[in-house]
């Protein structure tokens, strides 16, 4: 007969073991720091870095991360995530449901370009290192390969802005961090090389916010999927603001089209049912 024993106390407490937070009656430590020592001294972006990366950020890390997140907070109600949250807010789901609705729309196509661009820049840098080739050469090959496949190049060009207004200011901050030795600048050079290669074609799409924030995250050593998480955190601010504004508008059950407009019908014409 098989002797089956249940989990021990040690097994149970180890089930959700974590290196992030220690709690005990009257005590909360974040990565080993008592929370009462952090409140009022560590900024919110610093707390994000501490919890996700496991250490206190340097001034440069905090400055660049905050700049990237501020750049990503909102892009108006035409963004699907914002529109989704606003519609949900008129349906009585509550502010948390409206925010969740907006966040859940952030997928590979809407919200995923930053992660994809971090992956792209890291691949260019890694290939250049491995092959001992100039990053400009690898970037040009990458652009040519994407163009040959007619593939989307994440982080470059914008469907609305001829030149993304967030690009230049973030680029300046990264360049300053490179000049002071706070970041290496390899991923910045890769992104600029991609941009230069694109400029030699008929279309000359500059970096957009996903591209320049990808430079920030890659220079900070942020893993690609975590970079998407940072974008989601940042965009949640805009989602919250729009959901709250809409919830106070007084309109109920607001659909995607203003009444009396209706979506075009492209199906069969109305006909009698002969059963």
UniProtKB/TrEMBL annotation:
Keyword annotations for this protein, in alphabetical order, are: Lyase, Transferase
GO CC annotation: cytosol
What's its top-level EC category? transferase
Query: Which EC number(s) are documented for this chain?
Result: 2.3.3.16
Question: One of this protein's GO BP terms?
Answer: carbohydrate metabolic process
Q: Name one Pfam family in it.
A: Citrate_synt
Task: Write down the superkingdom of origin.
Answer: Bacteria
Question: Annotated pathway, please?
Answer: Carbohydrate metabolism; tricarboxylic acid cycle
Q: Which GO terms describe its molecular function?
A: citrate synthase activity; lyase activity
Q: Does the keyword Membrane apply?
A: no
Q: What Gene3D superfamilies has UniProt attached to this entry?
A: Citrate Synthase, domain 1, Cytochrome P450-Terp, domain 2
The region called Disordered is annotated at: 251-275
Keyword Lyase attached: yes
- Protein family membership: Belongs to the citrate synthase family.
Protein name, please? citrate synthase (unknown stereospecificity)
Q: In which organism is this protein found?
A: Actinosynnema pretiosum subsp. pretiosum
């Amino acid at each position: 007969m098989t002797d089956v024993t249940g989990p021990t106390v040690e097994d149970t407490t180890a089930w959700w073991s974590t290196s992030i937070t220690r709690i005990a009656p009257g005590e909360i430590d974040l990565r080993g720091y008592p929370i009462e020592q952090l409140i009022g001294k560590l900024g919110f972006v610093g707390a994000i870095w501490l919890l996700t990366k496991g250490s206190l950020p340097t001034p440069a890390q905090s400055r660049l991360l905050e700049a990237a997140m501020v750049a990503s907070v909102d892009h108006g109600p035409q963004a699907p995530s914002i529109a989704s949250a606003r519609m949900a807010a008129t349906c009585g789901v509550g502010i948390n449901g409206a925010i969740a609705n907006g966040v859940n729309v952030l997928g590979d196509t809407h919200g995923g370009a930053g992660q994809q661009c971090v992956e792209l820049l890291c691949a260019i840098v890694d290939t250049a290192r491995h092959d001992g080739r100039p990053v400009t050469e690898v970037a040009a090959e990458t652009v040519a390969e994407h163009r040959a496949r007619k593939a989307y190049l994440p982080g470059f060009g914008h469907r609305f802005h001829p030149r993304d207004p967030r690009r230049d200011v973030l680029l300046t901050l990264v360049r300053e961090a490179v000049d002071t030795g706070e970041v290496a600048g390899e991923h910045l050079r890769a992104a600029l090389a991609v941009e230069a290669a694109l400029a030699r074609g008929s279309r000359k799409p500059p970096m957009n916010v996903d591209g320049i924030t990808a430079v920030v995250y890659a220079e900070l050593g942020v893993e690609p999927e975590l970079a998407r998480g940072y974008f989601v955190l940042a965009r949640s601010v805009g989602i919250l603001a729009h959901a709250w504004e809409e919830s106070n508008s007084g309109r109920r059950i607001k659909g995607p089209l203003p009444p009396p407009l209706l979506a075009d019908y492209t199906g069969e014409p109305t006909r009698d049912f002969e059963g």
